[in-house]
């Protein structure tokens, strides 16, 4: 490179430290079934079939590229996807209402 074509290179600033969200906790299907059964006061065995069918339909809708609009869960859609050796990776974008909006909708 000649001197007249040199471009000043400045080091990139270090990324600002981000406050990570709550550390990842995994909710397994067994615990999910227990929570749902407790909430609706129905034996877990009876809840299992309904929850599994619900999860299957959610998975199918996501795989088909449908946007899920499921209040109070939120609105979810696939924003990116790729196929890897281990399977398919889907990146979902989930939009949830703020606390004030959710309370207002619940009151209606």
From TrEMBL:
SUPFAM superfamilies xref list: IHF-like DNA-binding proteins
TM segment ranges: none
Domain of life: Bacteria
Native source species: Paracoccus solventivorans
InterPro entries in the record: Hist_DNA-bd, IHF-like_DNA-bd_dom_sf
Keywords: DNA-binding
Keyword ATP-binding: no
Protein name according to UniProt: HU family DNA-binding protein
GO molecular function, one term: structural constituent of chromatin
Membership in a protein family: Belongs to the bacterial histone-like protein family.
Region called Disordered, residue ranges: 1-22
Pfam family, any one: Bac_DNA_binding
